[in-house]
């Protein structure tokens, strides 16, 4: 099948974001306009004079894709073309939950008919693996390094799906590069709903998470199967669907698969703390079948 | 039709006549009356447009960036802190070569907080690639907005244009303004067509990143477009005169320059006060004139040189300072014309910061100082008890 996200871009081997971005645009189809924040995806796909994008695509700044997309949507409404064209804004986790949160909240509150996709690789990878608000607890990044008096990132992930749901959006979902059909299904569902939507996709980063490129999909699946990255859907603020887990895997298996947790895999007490985070998710979202 | 009207409402009326399809803004004094006027115009169905209230100036500028990139004529307006919050986006809009018009209702910059007028805000964007036009009065403010769209959308320019009008003095001041008819504006301003736009029928990538092999050329393109604007802005002004019967716009405007030996250079509403003072000085036999800078970016070096080449002494009066050096207009003008003409003195004066009143007496003070030693950055009207006090 022809893709709207051509190969030949400069993403790292095994990049989860490249896999997810292709799934998103190919599911959305050619009648789509994308506004992209600054970040890995923008840099590896649009180095002038080349571009991977088969749909109209615009990049402006790090934090404003939601506002730029709002302008695209307003223009399409003015032109009477909005009904037939999808508008997607997309960014990484830092561009979404940190520097871009204000513009995103504004886009949600104003009710623009836009799907916002956050590719969550859990740190500022484009600038060299610095901690973001969505970096998980005790993850080793270049600005949250473990040391003699530190075990890495001291804070849990910012709950972006809940923040989105609190805006009473018609549709909020999380997905994972490890579950391509889930990504496709949720993009399709989101685009069938009018108004602002939020989709957050967990995308492993071999460079930042320190795993072999071939393990991307397995690691993404592990995150879901241990309860650390629940796949959930909210409609108008209410939890409506979750991906059930038959038998949760221990978080240890997930942590051991990546270098970013290497400093805690021999510390049973710390693994217990992270297991608690997974257990809380399992209980909170009712993840067990 | 002539109307006694507030400057902001005059601007709202002419922006309506330019038929923008998307308007977005965030409220900040003294820009508010302009966007309130437009909001009402849209709410009453007098203009078919999307009026989008956003959560910040950063998003207002980003939103119109997106709507212009989609091929729809757009408008925004701001002031002061809002202008500074926008500035990242302003550079980006110019870099992406997107035609757009915005109003800067000129206001001082914090700290200390001041809602009153000076021109420090728009001065901070003088290196951005935006074309900057400064209005002396409300008629000019209105007319410059119409011309701004023509200039901005000219295919040999394709740059955003900001019309700068002094906050409160013009935005909240009422005077008689001749507001054009829709048919005249339609004749002057053709529908907006953007070649490189977001279009599902012809997908293009906008805002790609450039490595060192391309970046310089992209930036050079902005410089070339600015040079083109120096040729095109006077032509737009001429054409405006043909249709509307009024000479407004252009690069500079001279007042009583013919035999002038001393000239005061300034821009914005202060020029009105200077002209009145010059009339009085002329009556006293002084050979003084005024040079009004209308187009500050691109900087009209040749037009300024032509106007000042036979002048002996020049005073530059401005409402902004490049802290640590001098007023930006003074610095630009001095580097452009010194050593090239008969001028033996160019003095720089800073006046009217944060809304301090500028009276004819303060202009006379400048005039008297001009005969003394050359000064670079003399603050006019300083309270003597604060002089030298940090």
Show the helix and strand layout.
The complex is a heterodimer of chains A (289) and B (390).
Chain A: H1 16-28, E1 32-36, H2 40-45, E2 57-59, H3 65-79, E3 86-92, H4 93-98, H5 101-110, E4 115-120, E5 146-147, E6 150-151, H6 160-166, E7 171-176, H7 180-191, E8 197-202, H8 206-209, H9 216-225, E9 232-235, E10 238-242, H10 251-256, H11 268-285
Parallel strand pairs in A: 1-2, 1-3, 3-4, 4-8, 7-8
Antiparallel strand pairs in A: 5-6, 7-9, 9-10
Chain B: E1 2-6, H1 7-17, E2 22-25, H2 32-43, E3 50-53, H3 57-69, E4 74-78, H4 80-95, E5 101-106, H5 120-123, E6 131-134, H6 138-153, E7 161-166, E8 174-178, H7 182-188, E9 205-206, H8 215-244, E10 252-255, E11 262-266, H9 270-283, E12 288-293, E13 295-297, H10 301-308, E14 313-318, H11 328-337, E15 345-350, H12 360-370, E16 378-379
Parallel strand pairs in B: 2-3, 2-4, 4-5, 5-7, 6-7, 11-12, 11-14, 14-15, 15-16
Antiparallel strand pairs in B: 1-8, 6-13, 10-12
Helix pairs in contact in B: 1-2, 1-6, 3-4, 9-12
CATH class of chain A: Alpha Beta
Give the overall pLDDT of chain B as a whole number: 96
Describe the sheet with the most strands of chain B. 7 strands, mixed
Number of domains of chain B: 2
Structural class of chain B: alpha/beta
Q: In what range is the share of β-strand residues of chain B?
A: 15-25%
Question: What best-fitting shape of chain B do the alpha-carbon axes yield?
Answer: globular
H/E series of chain B: EHEHEHEHEHEHEEHEHEEHEEHEHEHE
CATH class of the largest domain in chain B: Alpha Beta
Characterize the biggest β-sheet of chain A.
8 strands, mixed
CATH superfamily of the largest domain in chain B: Thiamin diphosphate (ThDP)-binding fold, Pyr/PP domains
